[in-house]
Amino acid sequence: MTFTTRIKDEITKETNNSLENRIELLSYLKYTGIIEENKISLLIENASVARYIFKLLKINYNININLTIRTQKRFKLKKIFILSFTEKADIIKEEINNLTNNIINSSFEEMASFLKGVFLSCGSINDPSKSKYHLEYLIEDKDAAELINNLLLNLRFKSKVIRRDKGYMVYIKVSEEISDFIKLMGATNSLFYYEDIRIYRDHKNMVNRLNNCEQANIEKSMKTCKEQLENIKYLKDNDLLDLLDDKIKIVINYREKYPETTMSELANIISLETENPITKSGINHYFRKIKDLVNKNKKL
Fold it and tell me: What angle do CA 141, 148, 135 make, to 5 degrees?
């Protein structure tokens, strides 16, 4: 079972008030239904969604519905649920049009119900444990895609629309917003699963970033130590040590004794063993003097 299927199964088990159910149904019919002059047909692959839509049609319109189940054997066994009806088709078509024209100015709950119905129709969310965070609606018509995007923007989601080979995709990439969307759909168990994975991934990424920073600091420290030792060698090879005072000579001796320590660690060691406190900035100041002397001598 995919993560999207899990969410849709959970949504179809939730009971809302009659108005929200009706909006879910009408938005689903708009984006999934094959709407003809006197007939509306639906081809549904998800059994839970098929049962849910059948139930909503009965509750809201009390109509006779023809149900056909076909078995598809391409690649893997799959059932297709076909719902069709003619009774009150004209009334339902009119209500779909009225809802579409007015939904952008409706309440928060009504817009959420509309988006829920469309999600059942053509929405999907990647499993956070297997791929990047991604929520999308795949929609054939540009105006319909723009409507979904505007509804999401009205509900403060940072969604975008892009052209695809077949239609348009309305999508959200931000993990926190996808979490909020799942919450909006009322899929509590799916939300807990998503948040568990997201927390784990965020923690793992944080650890990786800290390790990368630590490794970068180590490499930077090693490079600094190497440069300092090279400058010390240059001073010795060119008989320049006598130009330095005793405090700097002490630092030089300890750097050679502890060639891989950081300047902070070196300052602690010198302070402890000589009983003459020195700071990291003091160590850095002395090595700047050494570097200046080396550079000055090389220019001669």
Answer: 100
- Pairing mode, if any, of strands 123-125 and 135-139? antiparallel
Domain that holds residue 57: 3-186
How many angstroms separate the Cα of 271 from the Cα of each of 128, 225, 266, 283? 52, 19, 9, 11
pTM of the model as a whole: 0.72
Residue 188 CA to residue 288 CA, distance in Å, equals 61
**Does pLDDT of 75 surpass 90?**
no
| Mean pLDDT confidence for 188-196 | 92
- 19 found inside a domain: yes
* 236 and 131 belong to one structural domain: no
For residue 44, give Cα distances in angstroms to 69, 80, 83, 297.
Answer: 10, 6, 8, 83
Cα separation of 23 and 99, whole Å?
Answer: 8
pLDDT higher than threshold 70 for residue 292: yes
